[in-house]
Amino acid sequence: MKLDIFTYSDYKKYLREKINKDALTVKGLRGQLAKYLRCQPSYLSQVLNGKPNFTLEQAVLLNQFFHHDKLESKYFILLLEHHRAGTKDLREFFSEEISEVQKSRNSLKKRLKDTEEVSLENQHKYYSAWFYSAIHVILSIKEFQDPQKIAQHFNLPLELVIEVINFLESSGLIINRNGSFELTKKRLHLEQESVFIQRHHINWRSQALQSAEKNLREDLHFSSVIAIAKKDFPAIKEIFVQAIEEARKVIRPSKEERVYAITMDFFGL
Asked: Does 78 lie in the same domain as 123?
């Protein structure tokens, strides 16, 4: 998995771990990096493990060497400026800037952008029960364009399935094209402070419990209670967020054949 720079507040720690990780697959990485920065390998070690800092010009070269994207490049330079700051006030200024970037990265809504909004009234109904989103998703599968098949698959009354399909169509989430349903560009993603988020989580965790009771080999259920340092909680949380983003890269082009549910929990006790 790619090392995420946004979980770091110290550019030297990031570089040390980045170099150690990449060195496993790139022979002579430290030598290549020193040459790219136009410095001696000994100086590279001094900066990574001592008091000296890279220059802003070298930071640009580091961004190029590690193929940081635009946001990563800006954040890396921000970390460097924080480390180079000569006064307490300036360090606090850059520290606040770093915190703001990290907070924005924790918002999945900003990282997984939606195309259109759904009215609050329709969101209220959509998240009132699990079967609204389940039927919404399964309509993307050609074999389940028939309400009767959907009712049998989810063990729901046919009348209820028809009612849900009518709602999805009236709210603009699906379009009926000559008897075939297509999902529109409207997407729903709830912010953490949304009034619907609690009900949404409860809906799908209740389904997860039913799945766990079936104990099917193909399903995955994981539960663990751990004791870790407080400072490691954000880093582990970010790993899960990255996993979600990586999964979405597979999900987007994947052919619709079956409906699956994803639930994830990681919290303090």
From this structure: no
Provide the 10 A C-beta neighbour count for residue 75: 23
- Region 68-73: mean pLDDT is 84
List pLDDT tens digits, range 97-156: 999 988 887 665 455 444 466 777 888 889 888 999 999 999 999 889 888 899 999 999
Structure tokens given for 188: 């729903």
Say how many domains are in the chain. 2
- The reported pTM is 0.50
In 72-195, beta strands by DSSP E = 174-177, 180-183
Q: Which of 21, 55, 58, 69 is nearest to 30 (CA)?
A: 21
The 10 Å Cβ neighbour count of residue 50 is 10
- Beta-carbon-side half-sphere exposure of residue 8 (alpha carbons within 13 Å): 21
Contact 58, 67 (CB under 8 A): no
Look at 23-32, 171-180, 233-242 and tell me which has the smallest mean pLDDT.
171-180
CB contact set of 131 (below 8 Å; sequence gap of 6+): 154, 156, 160, 161, 164
105, 132, 164 - which closes a domain: 105
Partnered with residue 183 across adjacent β-strands are 174
Chain centroid to CA 160: how far?
Answer: 33
Residues constituting the chain: 269
Beta strands in the chain (DSSP E): 174-177, 180-183
Task: Based on the fold, state whether residues 96 and 19 are members of the same structural domain.
Answer: yes
Domain extent, residue 213, equals: 114-269
Residues 88 and 121 in one domain: no
Same-domain check for residues 123 and 79 = no
